[in-house]
Request: fold
Amino acid sequence: MRIEFPSLPENVSFARASVGAFVAQLDCTLEEIEEVKLVVSEAVSNCIIHAYDNRSNEKIMVMASIGLERELEILVEDTGKGIADISQAMEPTYSSDETRMGMGFTFMKSFMDNVEVRSIVGEGTSVTLRRTFLYHDKEALA
Ligand SMILES: Nc1ncnc2c1ncn2[C@@H]1O[C@H](COP(=O)(O)OP(=O)(O)O)[C@@H](O)[C@H]1O
Ligand SMILES: [Mg+2]
Reply:
């Protein structure tokens, strides 16, 4: 799936719900879906707040795919200001805005198997989030 939308704050919940609905085909638990929604919210909020400094008419792209072995891959991309020091940005509690918690990347890393950030200052950032879901025995769950 692929969606593209303007950097309006209300589109955080649009992106979150869209990816949540897409992921539901995996028959994963509600808790797992909530975790996926949370990481999408964090990544999309970062585009709005940081990449675009809250300008509302910029473009955000979200892609998601599911592989044959239940590997979920989500890509969140902006063409905003970029990140100069990616490892610093990913440190727990680091934020370039002292009023913020700086925990977005930490949540992404804790709920996903792998988080990859590519960024070019002045060109934009892409965040790739990967997680493989275990099979749930539906009868055991019932
Ligand atoms: N898409 C982005 N574009 C530019 N900078 C970003 C982006 N995402 C994250 N950052 C930078 O990484 C820092 C850490 O992000 P995060 O862990 O989500 O914490 P917070 O959003 O609370 O600052 C941000 O403060 C910002 O400087
Ligand atoms: Mg954040």
